[in-house]
Design brief:
3-stranded antiparallel β-sheet, alpha+beta
């Protein structure tokens, strides 16, 4: 399970979010809380893809392999240190991994939106400072 590279919002990501902006406006604090609440519901998360493959087995007298049918299996494809990697996935884990991959995509959308909102908030605060000056 650890080889699937799930990651959560508890550790370093949460630390960065909570501590990187020491002087947050009330709007930024509200946005941070909304972000944390939205993303907390996205557990488990994974980044990668799931693919079904067909492979021969190791049994020397397998009739399915002799016919060329092969056996279905699942692999999780992901990147690690810039290199593409694959891991075998047991059938019972496929539904949970599908959900985790979908949640990972939703998390990426939240992160992108949070970046846009940060820039827009900064622009608005800059305008309001200029207007007061």
């Amino acid at each position: 399970m650890a080889g699937l590279f799930f990651f959560g919002l508890t550790g370093s990501i949460r630390y960065i979010i909570l501590n990187s902006m020491a002087t947050l406006s009330r709007t930024a604090l509200d946005a941070r809380e909304a972000f944390l609440q939205e993303t907390a519901r996205l557990w488990p998360v994974a980044k990668g893809s799931l693919a079904q493959v067909r492979r021969p087995c190791m049994r020397p007298n397998c009739q399915a392999c002799a016919r060329g049918d092969k056996h279905p299996g699942w692999i999780f494809v992901f990147r690690e240190n810039g290199r593409q990697r694959c891991l075998y996935v047991r059938q019972r884990l496929v539904p949970a991994l599908r959900r985790a991959i979908l949640n990972g995509r939703r998390l990426e959308e939240h992160l992108t939106r949070a970046g846009h909102e940060l820039i827009e908030r900064d622009r608005q605060e800059g305008r309001s400072r200029r207007d007061r000056a």
